[in-house]
Amino acid sequence: xxxxxxxxxxxxxxxxxxxxxxxxxxxxxxxxxxxxxxxxxxxxxxxxxxxxxxxxxxxxxxxxxxxxxxxxxxxxxxxxxxxxxxxxxxxxxxxxxxxxxxxxxxxxxxxxxxxxxxxxxxxxxxxxxxxxxxxxxxxxxxxxxxxxxxxxxxxxxxxxxxxxxxxxxxxxxxxxxxxxxxxxxxxxxxxxxxxxxxxxxxxxxxxxxxxxxxxxxxxxxxxxxxxxxxxxxxxxxxxxxxxxxxxxxxxxxxxxxxxxxxxxxxxxxxxxxxxxxxxxxxxxxxxxxxxxxxxxxxxxxxxxxxxxxxxxxxxxxxxxxxxxxxxxxxxxxxxxxxxxxxxxxxxxxxxxxxxxxxxxxxxxxxxxxxxxxxxxxxxxxxxxxxxxxxxxxxxxxxxxxxxxxxxxxxxxxxxxxxxxxxxxxxxxxxxxxxxx
Length: 436
Fold this sequence. Notes:
The protein is of the alpha+beta class. The chain has four domains: 4-60, Winged helix-like DNA-binding domain superfamily/Winged helix DNA-binding domain (Arc Repressor Mutant, subunit A); 66-183, Udp-n-acetylmuramoylalanyl-d-glutamate--2,6- Diaminopimelate Ligase, Chain: A, domain 1 (3-Layer(aba) Sandwich); 192-308, Roll (CBS-domain), CATH 3.10.580; 319-435, Thiol Ester Dehydrase, Chain A (Roll), CATH 3.10.129.10. It has helices at residues 4-14, 23-30, 34-46, 74-80, 106-112, 125-133, 148-157, 168-187, 211-220, 240-243, 252-255, 269-279, 299-310, 319-326, 356-373, and strands at 20-21, 50-53, 57-60, 84-87, 98-101, 117-121, 137-140, 161-163, 196-197, 204-205, 225-228, 234-238, 257-258, 283-287, 293-298, 328-333, 336-342, 378-389, 397-407, 411-420, 423-435. The strands form five sheets. It has a six-stranded antiparallel beta sheet with strand order 16-17-19-20-21-18. Strands 4-8-7-6-5 form a five-stranded mixed beta sheet, sandwiched between helices. A four-stranded mixed beta sheet has the order 10-11-12-13. A hairpin with a 2-residue loop joins strand 20 and strand 21 (423-435). Helix 1 packs across helix 3 (34-46) and helix 14 crosses helix 15. The longest helix has 20 residues, at 168-187. The protein starts with a helix and ends with a strand. The mean pLDDT is 85. InterPro entries: CBS_dom (IPR000644), CBS_dom_sf (IPR046342), Diverse_CBS-Domain (IPR051257), DRTGG (IPR010766), HotDog_dom_sf (IPR029069), Ser_kin/Pase_Hpr-like_N_sf (IPR028979), Thioestr_dom (IPR006683), Tscrpt_reg_HTH_GntR (IPR000524). It comes from Saliterribacillus persicus. Residues 190-253, 256-314 form the CBS domain. GO terms for molecular function: DNA binding; DNA-binding transcription factor activity. This is Putative transcriptional regulator.
């Protein structure tokens, strides 16, 4: 039977997109405490089922598919520009396909304004009304209001009309930045993208006997299974090490390994890979917030997915991407390598010098490339110690020199030095696990 928390989430999923919900309403309708209702609504927000907007409330929205991440909802626009909704609240769940800056004559503006777009404009009431009639939402800049007729049209068309105190071009830059951030998020592969669903997963009950393990092993050839209680919550793992030499009639709970490591569908694949390699784990249960089993991921699946990601073109560019693209191998003698890079504006801090975080990215990139040159695969960083760093100004050309001190079958220790015109400007030590 579903828990109260799960019942609330199921109820929220059945609501029509655009419906407004509240803690008090949920608590009253489902006969639960307000605390339980609040926690479930927060979980629904994490899952992308609802969105909470200041001065508006919480509304049911359409859950985004990963391929549509770059399309922002109007509710998200309100949050980005710290806006106030003047009308058309029922349409906040809708997504915009493009935005148009209304810095032109009315007839020219209307040629570009189409259904599901967003017109960003100042205090021009006629343009507000025409845009709404074309099926576009309106974002009024400069903190201006609009007239009651326009608000009525917005309510009838269920298209938001939003006001913000920012100017037109600041707003456009903010929305562009948000779309760009969404594109980067779109590329981050999560456990939920590759895991095996619980319906296709073999698991063992807490009250089963060890002969269940032998039955599953014969059927699947696998030797590791999650152990769940009567509410399907993960309470342990059972492997061949736990079973060998034990009586088949023993209860599973007597021999299982308790408190196993788990991940959620929202966990990034890179983090899961790190944990599995660090702890030497072959499979890991995927659970929800209540520790209920939702599926499994295996180390093999994770490594295959990471290899696949490395071959994909990227749309959004992170600092690490910029660092990687700038790196160039200039000399190579045995195990001695020199990489060259230039400090660009994105790599600087508020003082205009190389930021500490980007310097760490340089260290990681140099170490990763040096290990790959030795045909040892990729690495998972355990520890980075920066011993020394000098201010490095914009457009400085740096020589990064990684030196492999220890290289074992599973781990590596690398000393990295950074030079500018033969003067040392940074020094660090990196230790990592190898991922073949």
